[in-house]
Design goal:
Number of helices: 8
Order of helices and strands: EHEHEHEHEHEEEEHEHHEE
Shape: globular
CATH superfamily of the largest domain: Response regulator
Distance between the termini: 46 Å
Number of domains: 2
Helix content: 40-55%
Mean pLDDT: 84
CATH architecture of the largest domain: 3-Layer(aba) Sandwich
Number of strands: 12
Strand order of the largest sheet: 2-1-3-4-5
Structural class: alpha/beta
Strand content: 15-25%
Length: 223
Protein backbone atom coordinates (compact mmCIF):
# COMPACT_ATOMS: atom_id res chain seq x y z
CA UNK A 1 0.00 0.00 0.00
CA UNK A 2 1.48 3.35 -1.06
CA UNK A 3 1.49 5.70 1.92
CA UNK A 4 2.09 8.88 -0.07
CA UNK A 5 -0.52 11.59 0.39
CA UNK A 6 -1.58 13.43 -2.77
CA UNK A 7 -3.40 16.76 -2.75
CA UNK A 8 -5.50 17.33 -5.88
CA UNK A 9 -6.61 20.89 -6.66
CA UNK A 10 -8.96 21.42 -9.61
CA UNK A 11 -12.15 23.42 -10.08
CA UNK A 12 -13.63 20.73 -12.36
CA UNK A 13 -15.53 18.14 -10.33
CA UNK A 14 -15.12 15.48 -13.03
CA UNK A 15 -11.32 15.82 -12.98
CA UNK A 16 -11.25 15.72 -9.18
CA UNK A 17 -13.35 12.55 -9.15
CA UNK A 18 -11.25 10.84 -11.83
CA UNK A 19 -8.01 11.61 -10.01
CA UNK A 20 -9.36 10.71 -6.59
CA UNK A 21 -10.69 7.34 -7.74
CA UNK A 22 -7.72 6.54 -9.97
CA UNK A 23 -5.01 7.53 -7.51
CA UNK A 24 -6.79 5.80 -4.63
CA UNK A 25 -6.89 2.59 -6.67
CA UNK A 26 -3.12 2.94 -7.18
CA UNK A 27 -2.64 3.01 -3.41
CA UNK A 28 -2.27 6.74 -2.75
CA UNK A 29 -4.09 8.66 -0.03
CA UNK A 30 -5.96 11.44 -1.82
CA UNK A 31 -7.57 14.70 -0.73
CA UNK A 32 -9.30 16.88 -3.32
CA UNK A 33 -9.92 20.63 -3.22
CA UNK A 34 -11.80 22.85 -5.66
CA UNK A 35 -9.69 26.01 -5.33
CA UNK A 36 -6.50 27.50 -3.89
CA UNK A 37 -8.14 28.81 -0.72
CA UNK A 38 -9.46 25.37 0.20
CA UNK A 39 -6.10 23.79 -0.64
CA UNK A 40 -4.12 26.17 1.57
CA UNK A 41 -6.45 25.42 4.47
CA UNK A 42 -6.03 21.68 3.96
CA UNK A 43 -2.23 21.56 3.67
CA UNK A 44 -1.53 21.99 7.37
CA UNK A 45 -3.58 19.01 8.47
CA UNK A 46 -3.27 16.70 5.44
CA UNK A 47 0.51 17.28 5.03
CA UNK A 48 0.75 16.07 1.41
CA UNK A 49 3.85 14.57 -0.16
CA UNK A 50 2.75 15.80 -3.59
CA UNK A 51 0.23 18.22 -5.06
CA UNK A 52 -1.48 17.91 -8.45
CA UNK A 53 -2.70 21.40 -9.34
CA UNK A 54 -4.78 22.69 -12.24
CA UNK A 55 -3.37 25.91 -13.69
CA UNK A 56 -6.62 27.48 -14.88
CA UNK A 57 -8.81 28.02 -11.81
CA UNK A 58 -11.07 30.93 -10.89
CA UNK A 59 -9.61 33.30 -8.32
CA UNK A 60 -6.03 32.36 -7.45
CA UNK A 61 -4.64 30.24 -10.28
CA UNK A 62 -2.34 27.24 -10.14
CA UNK A 63 0.80 29.32 -10.68
CA UNK A 64 0.03 31.45 -7.62
CA UNK A 65 -0.82 28.43 -5.49
CA UNK A 66 2.41 26.68 -6.52
CA UNK A 67 4.47 29.66 -5.39
CA UNK A 68 2.81 29.56 -1.95
CA UNK A 69 3.17 25.79 -1.55
CA UNK A 70 6.83 26.03 -2.60
CA UNK A 71 7.64 27.10 0.97
CA UNK A 72 7.89 23.36 1.59
CA UNK A 73 10.98 22.26 -0.41
CA UNK A 74 10.09 18.57 -0.05
CA UNK A 75 6.63 18.85 -1.63
CA UNK A 76 6.52 17.56 -5.20
CA UNK A 77 4.32 19.88 -7.30
CA UNK A 78 2.81 18.70 -10.58
CA UNK A 79 0.80 21.15 -12.70
CA UNK A 80 -2.12 20.20 -14.93
CA UNK A 81 -2.35 22.61 -17.83
CA UNK A 82 -4.28 22.91 -21.06
CA UNK A 83 -1.67 25.39 -22.20
CA UNK A 84 1.04 23.95 -24.44
CA UNK A 85 2.94 27.22 -24.88
CA UNK A 86 6.57 27.10 -23.75
CA UNK A 87 6.19 30.43 -21.92
CA UNK A 88 3.41 29.00 -19.74
CA UNK A 89 5.45 25.92 -18.89
CA UNK A 90 8.45 28.06 -18.02
CA UNK A 91 6.25 30.26 -15.80
CA UNK A 92 5.08 27.21 -13.89
CA UNK A 93 8.53 25.71 -13.43
CA UNK A 94 10.14 28.98 -12.43
CA UNK A 95 7.24 29.68 -10.06
CA UNK A 96 7.85 26.57 -7.99
CA UNK A 97 6.38 23.60 -9.86
CA UNK A 98 8.55 20.52 -10.40
CA UNK A 99 6.76 19.07 -13.40
CA UNK A 100 3.68 19.46 -15.58
CA UNK A 101 1.22 17.34 -17.57
CA UNK A 102 -0.76 18.76 -20.48
CA UNK A 103 -4.52 18.16 -20.63
CA UNK A 104 -6.02 15.92 -21.82
CA UNK A 105 -3.54 13.66 -20.02
CA UNK A 106 -2.87 9.94 -19.99
CA UNK A 107 -3.53 8.68 -16.46
CA UNK A 108 -0.69 6.14 -16.48
CA UNK A 109 1.76 8.88 -17.50
CA UNK A 110 0.53 11.12 -14.70
CA UNK A 111 1.02 8.33 -12.15
CA UNK A 112 4.47 7.54 -13.56
CA UNK A 113 5.55 11.17 -13.23
CA UNK A 114 4.14 11.37 -9.72
CA UNK A 115 6.02 8.28 -8.60
CA UNK A 116 9.24 9.38 -10.30
CA UNK A 117 8.97 12.77 -8.61
CA UNK A 118 8.25 11.24 -5.22
CA UNK A 119 11.29 8.98 -5.58
CA UNK A 120 13.48 11.97 -6.31
CA UNK A 121 12.11 13.97 -3.38
CA UNK A 122 12.06 11.10 -0.90
CA UNK A 123 15.29 9.30 -1.59
CA UNK A 124 17.63 8.85 1.37
CA UNK A 125 20.15 11.61 2.02
CA UNK A 126 22.94 10.75 4.44
CA UNK A 127 25.78 13.23 4.15
CA UNK A 128 26.68 16.82 3.42
CA UNK A 129 28.03 18.02 0.11
CA UNK A 130 30.17 21.08 -0.50
CA UNK A 131 31.82 22.88 -3.39
CA UNK A 132 33.38 26.26 -2.72
CA UNK A 133 30.81 28.45 -0.97
CA UNK A 134 27.99 26.01 -1.73
CA UNK A 135 26.98 23.71 1.12
CA UNK A 136 24.18 21.16 0.97
CA UNK A 137 23.01 19.64 4.26
CA UNK A 138 21.31 16.41 3.20
CA UNK A 139 19.96 15.66 6.66
CA UNK A 140 17.89 18.85 6.78
CA UNK A 141 17.62 19.43 3.00
CA UNK A 142 19.05 22.91 3.49
CA UNK A 143 21.34 24.65 1.02
CA UNK A 144 23.64 27.58 1.71
CA UNK A 145 25.49 29.88 -0.70
CA UNK A 146 28.11 32.15 0.86
CA UNK A 147 26.63 31.31 4.24
CA UNK A 148 23.14 32.43 3.27
CA UNK A 149 20.25 29.92 3.10
CA UNK A 150 18.56 29.57 -0.28
CA UNK A 151 15.19 28.04 -1.12
CA UNK A 152 15.10 25.49 -3.93
CA UNK A 153 12.34 23.47 -5.53
CA UNK A 154 12.60 19.68 -5.27
CA UNK A 155 13.96 19.44 -8.82
CA UNK A 156 16.46 22.28 -8.31
CA UNK A 157 17.67 20.52 -5.17
CA UNK A 158 18.18 17.23 -7.04
CA UNK A 159 19.90 19.03 -9.92
CA UNK A 160 22.32 20.77 -7.57
CA UNK A 161 22.92 17.54 -5.66
CA UNK A 162 23.78 15.71 -8.89
CA UNK A 163 26.25 18.44 -9.80
CA UNK A 164 27.77 18.40 -6.32
CA UNK A 165 28.24 14.64 -6.54
CA UNK A 166 30.14 15.09 -9.82
CA UNK A 167 32.35 18.20 -9.45
CA UNK A 168 34.44 18.99 -12.51
CA UNK A 169 32.69 16.33 -14.58
CA UNK A 170 30.80 17.35 -17.71
CA UNK A 171 27.24 16.03 -17.46
CA UNK A 172 25.14 15.86 -20.60
CA UNK A 173 21.59 17.17 -20.66
CA UNK A 174 20.39 13.62 -21.23
CA UNK A 175 22.28 12.39 -18.15
CA UNK A 176 20.82 15.19 -16.04
CA UNK A 177 17.32 14.62 -17.38
CA UNK A 178 17.49 10.89 -16.67
CA UNK A 179 19.02 11.27 -13.20
CA UNK A 180 16.84 14.11 -11.91
CA UNK A 181 13.55 13.29 -13.66
CA UNK A 182 13.93 9.52 -13.96
CA UNK A 183 15.02 7.11 -16.69
CA UNK A 184 11.49 6.72 -18.03
CA UNK A 185 10.79 10.44 -18.12
CA UNK A 186 9.61 11.60 -21.59
CA UNK A 187 10.66 15.25 -21.19
CA UNK A 188 13.13 17.30 -23.23
CA UNK A 189 16.28 19.41 -22.88
CA UNK A 190 14.29 22.58 -22.21
CA UNK A 191 13.50 21.35 -18.69
CA UNK A 192 17.20 21.10 -17.89
CA UNK A 193 17.96 24.55 -19.32
CA UNK A 194 15.12 26.19 -17.38
CA UNK A 195 16.17 24.59 -14.10
CA UNK A 196 19.87 25.39 -14.58
CA UNK A 197 18.96 29.02 -15.27
CA UNK A 198 16.77 29.21 -12.18
CA UNK A 199 19.42 27.51 -10.03
CA UNK A 200 22.12 29.93 -11.21
CA UNK A 201 19.91 32.86 -10.26
CA UNK A 202 19.26 31.51 -6.77
CA UNK A 203 22.91 30.76 -5.99
CA UNK A 204 23.92 34.09 -7.57
CA UNK A 205 25.98 32.46 -10.30
CA UNK A 206 25.11 35.10 -12.88
CA UNK A 207 28.57 34.94 -14.50
CA UNK A 208 28.10 31.16 -15.01
CA UNK A 209 31.49 30.41 -13.50
CA UNK A 210 30.16 27.96 -10.93
CA UNK A 211 27.74 26.04 -13.12
CA UNK A 212 29.54 26.14 -16.43
CA UNK A 213 27.95 25.54 -19.82
CA UNK A 214 29.83 23.15 -22.09
CA UNK A 215 28.43 24.06 -25.48
CA UNK A 216 26.92 21.24 -27.45
CA UNK A 217 27.01 18.86 -24.51
CA UNK A 218 25.83 19.97 -21.07
CA UNK A 219 27.05 21.42 -17.78
CA UNK A 220 29.69 20.98 -15.11
CA UNK A 221 30.26 22.29 -11.62
CA UNK A 222 33.49 24.28 -11.44
CA UNK A 223 36.50 23.69 -13.66
Amino acid sequence: MDKHRILVVDDEEVIRDVLEIGLSHRGFQVLTCQDSEEALQAVGTFKPHAAVIDVMMPGEDGFQLSRKLRQDPHLFILLLTARDAVADRVTGLEGGADDYVIKPFDFDELVARLRAGLRRVGQDQNHNLQFGSLIMDDASHKVFADGEPITLTAKEYELLRYLLLNPGIVLSKVQILQHVWGYDYPGDDNLVEVHVSSLREKIQDRTKKLIQTVRGFGYRLGS
